[in-house]
Request: fold
Amino acid sequence: MNMMKRLESQEDYLEKILQISKEKDNVHAIDVARGLSFSKPSVSVAMNKLKDQGYIEINNKGEITLTPSGLLIAEKTLEKHTIITKLLVSLGVDEETAMEDACKMEHDISDKTWEAIKRAYEKK
Reply:
């Protein structure tokens, strides 16, 4: 897996953990697997990598929490996803397509372009 795909995958996992944590008190690997439609074994491997990298903590009950650095990445990724989706919908793209495209765009957009989009969106 190349570096960009690995970073994209990490962002997707962290974003999903954040989304789930807003819906329920305790996040487990099975919740992440269901949320991303991935197999439980592949999610377990990813969770261990994220833990080793210091982005999440997993307690003895298997409950996953974001560390401050993991939360920062998750919030930034979710913000991009949300704003890009809303922007695309406002341009006439159907919501499902807008959400799919936003998921692709959120990982590849430069910080400079993102800041310009964010400023333009916030002026609305």
Observations:
- The first helix runs from residue 3 to 23.
- The helical segments are 3-23, 29-36, 40-52, 68-90, 95-108, 111-122.
- The beta strands are 56-58, 64-66.
- The chain has a mean pLDDT of 90.
